[in-house]
Design a protein that fits this description.
Length: 279
């Protein structure tokens, strides 16, 4: 999981480097498209086949959400500090808890409201209302976190009766397909150096997912969940070392508040049911 966090933080840095040259939606599309051969081969070796999966509508929703989440995240990385954008993406556990509550038609518990308030406070500290971040890039990062929460819920629902390999394969293929048309409208021919970074981004994304799956095979989610937050200090260090982004007090305090809020509900995202149905 630590290695996966390092890979994901590296992906964010690559996306930020590519941001000034290539539109975020094109970066996201190529991240999925270039990974398709690798994912298909890996899925076939794990027993997956190129057939129409069960519950195709849900797979399509997952592909749409994954493509949108990555486009929004890459847009945020290009427009704001790497550490700040990464911190805002950790709203995902909070969104998961509240989406589960909505789907199950029940009110969130008091501690969940308190966690949301804590996370919102952290976001306000980072965004500093009145600045450009509060109305633009910051909202993109929070929207990306919401889409990531949707991906997590759909993935968990699909995993109830389907293997992980087909889910990973269809998610990558469908995300590339749904992003292809809008990407064609804004296409910018990458330089050779950009192509190399795009290939690295695609390989890193696939490797990161494989590492996370492997980690969950070896340990329970409750043990691994806190480790995920190592990604934030890694992003802060990469921002400092690569992009010269100073470690401000607002970033540190806001990040700690968001992590505290996410940790307080982190275990719930794996224990709460998504629907009332049982299989």
């Amino acid at each position: 999981m630590l290695l996966a966090c390092a890979v994901v933080a590296g992906m964010a840095a690559i996306a930020k480097v590519l941001g000034p040259e290539i539109p975020p939606i094109q970066i996201a599309c190529l991240r999925f498209a270039l990974a398709v051969p690798v994912v298909v081969i890996a899925a076939q070796r794990c027993g997956g086949r190129l057939t129409v999966p069960a519950r195709p509508g849900l797979h399509l929703v997952r592909g749409l959400l994954a493509g949108l989440a990555m486009t929004l995240a890459f847009s945020a990385f290009a427009r704001m500090r790497l550490g700040d954008a990464t911190a805002l993406l950790f709203f995902e556990p909070l969104f998961i808890v509240f989406l589960v509550a909505v789907l199950n038609r029940r009110r969130p518990a008091l501690e969940q409201w308190l966690a949301a308030l804590l996370g919102l406070t952290g976001a306000l500290v980072i965004l500093q209302p009145g600045s450009g971040l509060a109305t633009g890039p910051g909202l993109l990062a929070i929207a990306a976190a919401l889409c990531q929460a949707g991906v997590a819920l759909v993935t968990r629902e699909l995993s109830r009766d389907q293997a992980k390999a087909p889910i990973l394969m269809t998610g990558t293929v469908l995300a590339a397909i749904v992003l292809a048309l809008p990407t064609a409208q804004v296409w910018v021919t990458p330089s050779i150096a950009a192509w190399m970074l795009l290939v690295l981004l695609a390989l890193a994304g696939t490797a990161g997912q494989a590492l996370i799956i492997a980690a969950y095979r070896l340990a329970c989610p409750g043990t691994l969940a806190p480790v995920e937050y190592v990604q934030l200090p890694l992003a802060l260090l990469i921002g400092l070392a690569v992009f010269g982004e100073p470690l401000t007090a607002a970033s540190m305090i806001g990040s700690l508040l968001i992590i505290a809020a996410a940790l307080s509900v982190g275990g719930l995202r794996y224990s709460l049911p998504i629907t009332r149905k049982t299989r």
